[in-house]
Amino acid sequence: MALSKVEKRQKIKRRVRRNIFGTETKPRLSVYRSNKEIYAQIIDDNNGVTLASASSREKGVAEGTKTEVSTSVGKALAAKAVAKGIETVVFDRNGFVYHGRIKALAEGAREGGLKF
Q1: How far apart are CA 81 and CA 88, in angstroms?
Q2: Model pTM?
Q3: What is the rounded CA–CA span in Å between residue 37 and residue 52?
Q4: Cβ–Cβ < 8 Å for 27, 89
Q5: Which residues have C-beta within 8 Å of that of residue 3, sequence separation ≥ 6?
Q6: Model confidence over 21-46: pLDDT tens digits?
Q7: Which terminal residue of the chain, N or C, has fewer Cβ atoms less than 10 Å from its own Cβ?
Q8: Is residue 6 within a helix (H) or strand (E), and if so which, with residue range?
Q9: Of 27, 32, 36, nearest in space to 9 by CA
Q10: Which helix (H) or strand (E) holds 43?
């Protein structure tokens, strides 16, 4: 039986998360993309704490195409992280293909000062 689109992504997500783990010194930048919005958070998996988060639903995020919004979400998240002293992260694409909006968010976070 064939897997649905969501089930395929969940399978990829589980496979990737076996190797990706966020610590206090190098937390995990997790991205979720819905059809309409994009969300990102920086997570310390040791303590189970979200250190910073940003989404396209927040005020102050630039208007425009979904890709432009993703870039501004990445920059906003990077600004929050740098303010809390976080400079390096591990990127978790959450089973999504690294192109389009996911790539735009990653590049925005890099422009904002995060290293990964």
Answers
A1: 9
A2: 0.90
A3: 18
A4: yes
A5: 11
A6: 988 889 999 999 999 999 999 999 99
A7: N
A8: helix 5-17
A9: 32
A10: strand 38-44
